[in-house]
């Protein structure tokens, strides 16, 4: 990275008041993500929730840093014992259980969705779908350690493809509505 590219980044560091605002908004975003975890369709071994849609929105609306910060705050609060995970689950055991890979995939998805700012509608749609699908990479990989690869692909990915398309489309529609 050149000095010319670093200089604007150094100037863009938030002032203390802006930093506090960023933290408070990220905390609010983490609570929205926690609320979306309670909209659950019980499935085995991974429940269906609205979390991935909210992860996409957090990144796409707030940018990559904000999206990652909100998801990280969500994970920390849930690991600390707040009932933030799907179905009201809480505690550090969730972060080593069968769904841990999906939860950690939220970080990468929020970052990628954050790249959607200022691009065309078609590119935004493709980017949000890619971000949504990115959640499945660590999710399936981790889940396979519990139930094997074939079952992880079947029960942890293929069954979610229709809802992935729908939730990505809803996220895109919400972004369009917020932009007006």
Please characterize this protein's 3D structure:
With 180 residues, this protein is mainly alpha-helical. The protein has nine helices and two strands; from the N terminus they run H-H-E-E-H-H-H-H-H-H-H. It has helices at 3-11, 16-37, 51-62, 64-79, 100-113, 121-134, 136-147, 149-156, 161-179; strands at 40-41, 48-49. It has a two-stranded antiparallel ribbon with strand order 1-2. Helix 4 (64-79) packs antiparallel against helix 5. It starts with a helix and ends with a helix. The relative contact order is 0.13.
Keyphrases for this structure?
mainly alpha, 180 residues, disordered N terminus
Reconstruct the topology from this structure.
Blueprint: H1 3-11, H2 16-37, E1 40-41, E2 48-49, H3 51-62, H4 64-79, H5 100-113, H6 121-134, H7 136-147, H8 149-156, H9 161-179
Antiparallel strand pairs: 1-2
Shape: globular
Biggest β-sheet description: 2 strands, antiparallel
Mean pLDDT: 92
Strand content: under 5%
Strand segment tally: 2
Estimated structural class: mainly alpha
* Estimated helix fraction: over 70%
Radius of gyration: 17 Å
Which segments are poorly predicted (pLDDT under 50) over 5 or more consecutive residues? 1-11
Main β-sheet, spatial strand arrangement: 1-2
What's the order of the H and E elements?
HHEEHHHHHHH
What distance separates the N and C termini? 35 Å
H/I helix tally: 9
């Amino acid at each position: 990275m050149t000095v010319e590219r670093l200089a604007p980044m150094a100037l863009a560091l938030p002032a203390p008041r802006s930093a506090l605002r960023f933290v408070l908004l990220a905390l609010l975003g983490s609570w929205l993500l926690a609320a979306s975890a309670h909209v659950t369709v019980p499935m085995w071994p991974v429940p269906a929730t609205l979390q991935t849609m909210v992860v996409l929105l957090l990144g796409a609306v707030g940018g990559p840093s904000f999206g990652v910060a909100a998801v990280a705050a969500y994970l920390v609060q849930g690991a600390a014992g707040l009932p933030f995970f799907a179905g009201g689950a809480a505690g550090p055991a969730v972060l080593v259980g069968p769904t841990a890979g999906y939860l950690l995939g939220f970080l990468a998805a929020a970052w990628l969705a954050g790249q959607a700012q200022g691009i065309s509608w078609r590119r935004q749609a493709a980017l949000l779908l890619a971000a949504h699908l990115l959640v499945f990479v660590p999710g399936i990989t981790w889940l396979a350690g519990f139930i094997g690869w074939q079952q992880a692909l079947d029960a942890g990915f293929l069954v979610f493809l229709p809802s992935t398309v729908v939730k990505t489309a809803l996220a895109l529609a919400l972004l369009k509505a917020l932009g007006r």
